[in-house]
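Q: I'm a student working through a structural biology exercise. My instructor gave each of us a protein and asked us to get a predicted structure, then write a short paragraph describing it. Mine is Pyridoxamine 5'-phosphate oxidase family protein. I'm not confident about reading structure output yet, so if you can add a plain explanation after the tokens, that would really help. Here is the sequence I was given:
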Amino acid sequence: MSRQARRLHELPRAESLRRLARVSLGRIVFTQQALPAIRPVNHLVDNRNLIIRTHIGAAIVSAVHDDGVVVAYEADAIDPVSHLGWSVIVQGRAVLIRNPAEIARYQCLLRPWVLNQMDYVVRIHPEIITGFELVNEDGSPSA
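A: Happy to help. First, here is the predicted structure for Pyridoxamine 5'-phosphate oxidase family protein. I'll explain a few features afterward.
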């Protein structure tokens, strides 16, 4: 394990979105029965929005109302040995996509990691994006 000092470097919005686009797994945070709920999901970034696919029994589907719901989404890439990497948190409104052409497009673009009927597509429009990178004290991103 690296013992070099690290510091937190804030990432600009555009760079945070680029990093989200480079990974495919994150965690969506929403409210379920007045309590916070977190689910791991795979995603893609399309036109500065996060897209996830899900199924009818998923808790997030019942949480997203017709006018949407405020959610948080987090993804990261942190090396377990060096403890260097980045984390991005998005806060915004999640809505169910209802347009059949859009649904079909995302069904082609985003393949779920689990074997299940994933008929629902959720779009998260980022309103607040907070990105941080853990770097060595000298500013270098790797050991």
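A: Here are two points you could use in your paragraph. Strands lie at 6-11, 25-32, 35-42, 44-46, 49-54, 69-78, 85-96, 120-136. The mean pLDDT is 89. It's a good idea to check both against the output above yourself.
Q: Great, thank you!
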